[in-house]
From TrEMBL:
<feature type="compositionally biased region" description="Acidic residues">
    <location>
        <begin position="189"/>
        <end position="212"/>
    </location>
</feature>
<protein>
    <recommendedName>
        <fullName>JAB domain-containing protein</fullName>
    </recommendedName>
</protein>
<feature type="region of interest" description="Disordered">
    <location>
        <begin position="189"/>
        <end position="213"/>
    </location>
</feature>
């Protein structure tokens, strides 16, 4: 089954804006006439939040339609890690899932980088990212998605076109360059134990094949506003 993640405009805006808000001040290029970088502020670091929307199954596709991204404010963060409490997570889920057509789909977080270190690996999940996502999916009982937004600050605004490579989109917003990537927890949720004997045999046959599990790239990421590139902000 192919995995597709579709991110709607408002959800993308929330992820991008929160990632820029908490972008480490020390990672900003020095302004003209300055010889030193700025110092980080207490709330600088990674941004993170929860993703809600609809999970749609059609033919051989599973589509995660992300219509809402809720930034978590009660977090502890630094430049390369962000954490939250289960208590605040459940608060957000409880109220958000009470709205119609909104179910929990997963989470997002940012990976801020200095300009000279930013590259294709900007959105690669860390071991901690994978462990956290797989654990959350196992507890929730459904496969979940994880969207990572790698971001850096340039010396000037860029209006270049976006590029895509399946599970990622590289684009620009003003002086910020970002890479948006989507992953899914594969194999985090165990099959139903009362499946038929025939299903058990199929599962055994599949187990004989070398099926990869973990936090894996989705087959396609769709985000029209990000795919427009930097020119959309002119």
């Amino acid at each position: 089954m192919s995995l597709i993640v579709h991110v709607q405009e408002q959800a993308f805006q929330a992820m991008l804006i929160s990632s820029i808000e908490t972008f480490p001040s020390s990672y900003l290029p020095p302004e003209q006439g300055q010889s030193r970088r700025r110092k980080d502020r207490p709330q600088d670091g990674e941004a993170m939040g929860l993703l809600f929307g609809q999970r749609v199954y059609k033919d051989d596709y599973e589509v995660f339609n992300v219509s809402l991204a809720v930034t978590m404010q009660a977090t502890e963060r630094n430049s390369d890690e962000v954490s939250y409490s289960d208590f605040h997570f459940e608060r957000i889920r409880e109220v958000t899932e009470s709205f119609p057509h909104l179910e929990f789909l997963g989470a997002f977080h940012s990976h801020p980088w200095k300009k000279e270190d930013f590259g294709a690996e900007a959105t690669e999940p860390s071991e901690a990212d994978e462990e956290s996502a797989m654990e959350a999916a196992g507890e929730y009982g459904e496969e979940l998605i994880e969207i990572i937004l790698g971001i850096t600050a340039l010396s000037r605004n860029s209006y270049r076109d976006a590029t895509q490579d399946g599970h990622s989109i590289d684009s620009f917003c003003g002086r910020y360059k970002y890479r948006l990537s989507a992953y899914c927890t594969v194999g985090a949720v165990e099959e139903d134990s009362d499946e038929s004997e025939e299903d058990e045999e199929d599962a055994e046959d599949e187990a004989d094949e070398d099926i990869e599990t973990g936090l894996l790239p989705v087959d396609q990421l769709i985000c029209p506003v990000a795919a427009h590139g930097g020119r959309i902000f002119t």
